[in-house]
Amino acid sequence: ECSICLCEYIVGSDLVYSSNPQCDHVFHAECIEQWIMKQRDGPLCPCCRRDFV
């Protein structure tokens, strides 16, 4: 499930994986895009606070 919206992933969902090998979290594309746009400190993972991109 997406840790941002808490909805299950379904087949065909647009998912985004971190390009940082130290972060293995996955989110719905729309959820993580909105999250990153609100961040002042750069694109950090909402779960582990590591660089997401």
TrEMBL record:
Domain RING-type: 2-49
GO molecular function: zinc ion binding
Domain of life of the native organism: Eukaryota
PROSITE patterns in the cross-refs: ZF_RING_2
Pfam family for this entry, one: zf-RING_2
Organism: Fragilariopsis cylindrus CCMP1102
Protein name: RING-type domain-containing protein
Keywords carried by this UniProt record: Metal-binding, Zinc, Zinc-finger
InterPro entries: RING-type_E3_ligase_ATL (IPR052788), Znf_RING (IPR001841), Znf_RING/FYVE/PHD (IPR013083)
